[in-house]
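Researcher: Quick one. two chains, 466 residues in total.
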Amino acid sequence: MAGRGETWIARLTPASGRSVDDLLAARLGLDVWERHPDHLVVAATEGQLGEVERRHLAEVERLVTRSQYEARTDDGPGTTSSATSP
Amino acid sequence: MASVIVRVTSTSARSPLARLVAIPLGLDLWELHPDHAVLQADEAQASRLEAMGYAVEQLRLSESYLTDFATESAVTGYHSAQTLEEDLRQLADDNPEIAELHEIGHSVEGRPILALRLGERRGSSRKVAFLGCHHAREWISVEVPFLLAEDLVANASADPVREWLQRGEIWVAPMVNPDGHEFTRTPGNRLWRKNRRRNRDGTVGVDLNRNYGYMWGTLDIDTSSHTPADETYVGPRAFSEPESRAVRDLVARQAFGGVLTYHSYSQLILYPWGYTDEPIVDETDHREMRDLAGDMQRLIAGVHGETYTAQQSSRLYPTAGDTTDWTYGEYDVPSFTVELRPASALEGGFILPAGQIQPCWEENRPAAHAFIGHVLEKPA
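Model:
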């Protein structure tokens, strides 16, 4: 993935007046994991997320680093019965 | 410093749970619920959370969690390219009257791309195809079509499978992207998506599910990109990759009456178009796919109660050059992308615990059967 620094799994909520479609069209090189009506879940480098913030395109919530996510591998949260809805 | 699994609740208005995800402490958040969160943290991080106004309850030490759950069997629940080949070959060898293993092409790195043909006779005009693992990191998308093949063989003497195998052919290619899948099994590369093509600019990989030849390259956005480094790089031209050419040639040779391709995750049942928000113009085709997707949604929900939402592909996000736009656009056959478990990243995302392979297969079995029945039993 292009960009600088640590890769994050992040939630991007479009800034006021912008839509998820605007975000998808912004050519940021994001790895889009989920699309919801009001936000995206993406994998993106710190550099890419910084660009999103600098351009005021979206609110960025850094959920977990990619390395932490990968370290969970099998038997992470999916095995818990409480985690069954988005 | 010891790492712990903790349950975090909010104890004051100044520290809402929703803010937890944005705190720059490097927390490893596993679950986020309306009233609590579960996360992995070291002792310093846990103390910092308490100082910020959160209640932190230690559930267990991470080390004991890993000892309990990260078992060899959990890790080995998924196929490699090698074990998949062995298992497909075994299925064919044990059932030569109904099963035949075909090499439909080779990957960039020379690995065979395999498809199992199931059916009692050759040359039937009724054929259906199931594909898996265009995207390397989507391991569950290998297992569901493989288990479908295994189940069809096991039930070959009982209706409706017996009748299907007498009447037509069912082709199953569980791993279209063996190079990428193998790469995800190496340290630090579990989330690799593309194939392993060396691009001209030194980057690696083409998104195979953007490399098909219907409306290829007509979008240039993050979900269908012309930038080689991007995860959804469409490639230099349509069918530039040997893996997508293998599928192209198989579909052209066999003239399938329907194609279903498995991906993960999000629990969706997608039908064309992906390249445009416009619905399919042919109302009969549109109704056929919309209704069948709705049937599959109900059948899946009826097994374990999981919701797989049926919708037009572009409602997820726009994609040009994907498999089902091509199979429908070029061959006019019902075409579906099924996004398997889980529903969200918080439930594991691309890294689905091996313990969920079986229930995921179980809930997709009746939907796959409905698709086979629809294609093979369709009036001529």
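Residues 65-74 of chain B have pLDDT under 50 and may be disordered.
Researcher: Thanks, that's what I needed.
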